[in-house]
Design goal:
The chain is α/β, with parallel strands linked by helices. It is 26% helix and 22% strand.
Length: 306
Amino acid sequence: MPLTVATSAFPVSADVRSNLRHVRRQILQASDAGADVVHLPECALSGYAGVDFPSYDGFDWGQLRAATERVQEAAQASGVAVVMGSSHPLTPPHKPHNCVYVIGADGALVDRYDKLFCAGPASADQGDLAHYSSGDHFCTFTLSGVTCGVLICHDYRYPELYRQYKRRGVQVMFHSYHAGNVPPDRWEAMHDATGREHHRFHGGAGTLPGITMPATMISMAANNYVLISASNTSAPQSCWPSLVVRPDGVMVGRLRRNRSGLLLTRIDPGEAYYDSTIAWRDRSIDGVFHSGPRVDDPRSRDRTAL
C-alpha cells in the first residue's frame, strides 16, 4: 500500500510554544496534502540543548509534556502519524534522552527512539553527551504496511546502524537532524575549516555537515536499499535543507535551506529500483566478505608472487 511522507523543516528554537505552533501547523498542512505521516527534525518540540539553549538547568518539563499531548491531539484530529524529535526526561540525576516520538494517526504513542550515538568525547562533558544519555534500542514500526525505522543526526556516522535496520526488514528510514542555528562567527569558521577552494566540488556546500550528511544519506540509501527521509531544522544558518532519497540513492526532493516547508514524497513499496548489492548484501551483513564461490588455488594463496 502506498505511503505519503511529509518531510518537515522549520526553525527549531528554545521556545517550546513556538515549536508547537510550527508542529501543529505542519500536521494540518500534511493532512490537507494527503500525507500519512509528517517527519519532524531532531529536538523539534523541545529545542536542542547546547545549541538552541545552554542546558536543561531549570527546563520546564511540564510545559514540554503538555505540548507533546497537544501534538498527540493534533495527530488524532488530523489522522496523520507524527515522527517528532524531542527530549525525554529520565530520573534525576540522569540526563534526558535526545529522542524521537512515534505518534500514531490515532494520537497514541507507538514507540520512542533514543539517540544511540550522542556526539562527544568519552569524558561526556562536551557535545551531546554533556546534555543527553545515549539510548539502548532500535525502533521499528509499521505505517500502511511499510516497515519503518528511526535514527537521529550523529547516528549517520555509524553505517552499522543502517545494517541493523536492514536486518529488521526496514524499508523507510526517518533520520532526524539538527544541523542549523549556527551563529555567524561559527559559520565562517566552519567554512574556513573545509577550505573554501573546495566548495565548488560539493555543489556550493561549505560546511562538513553540508557536505557529509546529504552524501551519507545517498550512500546509506543505495547500500541498504531503503528510502530515507532526512528532516533538518531550517533555523539560520542551517547547513543543508531537508531531503528525501529513494532506495537506489537518487535524491527525489529537497526543500530550500533556511526556509520552512514540507516535502511530500509518495512511496510505493511495490516499485522496484536498481539494487546493485541485492545478491550479496545479506552475506556481507552476516560477516561473509566475498561474492560467489571461493577458489582453492596455490596462485591465489601466494600473494607475493607475480
